[in-house]
Prior knowledge:
alpha+beta
Amino acid sequence: MIKLRHSTVTPQSLHPTLGGYSHAVEVLPNYRYLFVSGQIPVRPDGTVPDNFPDQCNAVWDNVASVLYHAEYEFADLVKVTTFLSAATYGDENGRIRRTRLGDVQPALTVVITGIYDKAWLLEIEVVAARPA
Protein backbone atom coordinates (compact mmCIF):
# COMPACT_ATOMS: atom_id res chain seq x y z
CA MET A 1 0.00 0.00 0.00
CA ILE A 2 1.28 3.47 -0.87
CA LYS A 3 1.81 5.76 2.13
CA LEU A 4 0.05 9.10 2.44
CA ARG A 5 1.81 11.67 0.26
CA HIS A 6 1.02 14.61 2.52
CA SER A 7 2.42 15.94 5.76
CA THR A 8 0.56 14.83 8.88
CA VAL A 9 0.35 16.97 12.01
CA THR A 10 0.62 15.05 15.28
CA PRO A 11 1.01 17.40 18.26
CA GLN A 12 2.76 15.80 21.25
CA SER A 13 0.32 17.74 23.47
CA LEU A 14 -2.68 15.73 22.16
CA HIS A 15 -3.73 12.18 22.84
CA PRO A 16 -2.78 9.67 20.15
CA THR A 17 -5.48 9.10 17.54
CA LEU A 18 -7.82 6.21 18.19
CA GLY A 19 -6.90 4.30 15.06
CA GLY A 20 -6.30 4.80 11.39
CA TYR A 21 -6.38 8.57 11.02
CA SER A 22 -4.33 11.73 11.60
CA HIS A 23 -5.07 14.74 13.79
CA ALA A 24 -4.43 16.90 10.72
CA VAL A 25 -3.06 16.66 7.21
CA GLU A 26 -1.22 19.51 5.51
CA VAL A 27 -1.30 19.77 1.73
CA LEU A 28 1.63 21.55 0.12
CA PRO A 29 1.38 24.22 -2.61
CA ASN A 30 0.89 23.13 -6.21
CA TYR A 31 -1.53 20.32 -5.42
CA ARG A 32 -4.84 19.78 -7.12
CA TYR A 33 -7.91 18.84 -5.09
CA LEU A 34 -10.87 16.56 -5.62
CA PHE A 35 -13.96 17.05 -3.45
CA VAL A 36 -16.09 13.90 -3.63
CA SER A 37 -19.77 14.17 -2.79
CA GLY A 38 -21.20 11.85 -0.18
CA GLN A 39 -21.16 8.34 -1.60
CA ILE A 40 -24.06 6.07 -0.69
CA PRO A 41 -24.40 2.27 -0.47
CA VAL A 42 -26.12 1.87 -3.83
CA ARG A 43 -24.32 -0.55 -6.14
CA PRO A 44 -23.98 0.14 -9.87
CA ASP A 45 -26.94 -2.20 -10.51
CA GLY A 46 -29.13 -0.08 -8.20
CA THR A 47 -29.28 -2.53 -5.31
CA VAL A 48 -28.60 -1.68 -1.66
CA PRO A 49 -26.99 -4.38 0.51
CA ASP A 50 -28.97 -5.48 3.58
CA ASN A 51 -26.19 -5.37 6.19
CA PHE A 52 -23.68 -2.80 7.39
CA PRO A 53 -20.42 -4.49 6.26
CA ASP A 54 -21.71 -4.91 2.71
CA GLN A 55 -23.07 -1.36 2.65
CA CYS A 56 -19.79 0.04 3.96
CA ASN A 57 -17.78 -1.86 1.34
CA ALA A 58 -20.20 -0.73 -1.39
CA VAL A 59 -19.64 2.89 -0.34
CA TRP A 60 -15.84 2.45 -0.39
CA ASP A 61 -16.17 0.79 -3.82
CA ASN A 62 -18.05 3.89 -5.02
CA VAL A 63 -15.42 6.20 -3.53
CA ALA A 64 -12.68 4.16 -5.22
CA SER A 65 -14.50 4.39 -8.55
CA VAL A 66 -14.79 8.19 -8.36
CA LEU A 67 -11.13 8.52 -7.37
CA TYR A 68 -10.01 6.20 -10.18
CA HIS A 69 -11.99 8.05 -12.86
CA ALA A 70 -10.48 11.36 -11.71
CA GLU A 71 -6.97 9.79 -11.65
CA TYR A 72 -6.64 9.74 -7.85
CA GLU A 73 -6.26 6.84 -5.41
CA PHE A 74 -6.73 6.15 -1.72
CA ALA A 75 -3.16 7.34 -1.04
CA ASP A 76 -4.33 10.83 -2.08
CA LEU A 77 -7.03 11.09 0.60
CA VAL A 78 -6.53 13.98 3.01
CA LYS A 79 -10.00 14.11 4.64
CA VAL A 80 -12.77 11.56 5.18
CA THR A 81 -16.15 12.39 6.67
CA THR A 82 -18.41 9.45 7.50
CA PHE A 83 -22.07 9.82 8.37
CA LEU A 84 -23.45 6.83 10.29
CA SER A 85 -27.13 6.19 10.98
CA ALA A 86 -26.29 4.72 14.41
CA ALA A 87 -23.32 4.69 16.79
CA THR A 88 -23.51 0.90 16.92
CA TYR A 89 -21.82 0.83 13.50
CA GLY A 90 -18.79 2.82 14.68
CA ASP A 91 -16.37 -0.01 15.43
CA GLU A 92 -17.21 -1.96 12.31
CA ASN A 93 -16.97 1.19 10.20
CA GLY A 94 -13.49 1.89 11.56
CA ARG A 95 -12.35 -1.66 10.97
CA ILE A 96 -13.53 -1.66 7.36
CA ARG A 97 -12.05 1.81 6.72
CA ARG A 98 -8.66 0.72 8.06
CA THR A 99 -8.79 -2.45 5.94
CA ARG A 100 -9.70 -0.51 2.79
CA LEU A 101 -7.20 2.33 3.31
CA GLY A 102 -4.28 0.34 4.69
CA ASP A 103 -1.52 2.71 5.82
CA VAL A 104 -3.35 5.83 4.60
CA GLN A 105 -4.38 7.94 7.60
CA PRO A 106 -6.35 11.01 6.47
CA ALA A 107 -7.96 13.53 8.78
CA LEU A 108 -11.25 11.97 9.87
CA THR A 109 -14.67 12.93 11.17
CA VAL A 110 -17.48 10.51 12.00
CA VAL A 111 -20.97 11.92 12.54
CA ILE A 112 -23.99 10.04 13.87
CA THR A 113 -27.03 11.43 12.08
CA GLY A 114 -30.15 10.69 10.13
CA ILE A 115 -29.40 9.54 6.59
CA TYR A 116 -31.47 10.71 3.58
CA ASP A 117 -32.83 7.22 2.78
CA LYS A 118 -33.69 4.95 5.71
CA ALA A 119 -32.30 1.93 3.83
CA TRP A 120 -28.83 3.50 3.83
CA LEU A 121 -26.79 2.94 6.99
CA LEU A 122 -23.95 5.31 6.07
CA GLU A 123 -22.62 7.87 3.64
CA ILE A 124 -18.98 8.88 3.10
CA GLU A 125 -17.51 12.01 1.54
CA VAL A 126 -13.81 12.54 0.91
CA VAL A 127 -11.28 15.15 -0.13
CA ALA A 128 -8.21 14.06 -2.07
CA ALA A 129 -5.13 16.01 -3.13
CA ARG A 130 -2.23 15.15 -5.40
CA PRO A 131 0.59 17.07 -7.07
CA ALA A 132 -0.57 19.24 -9.95
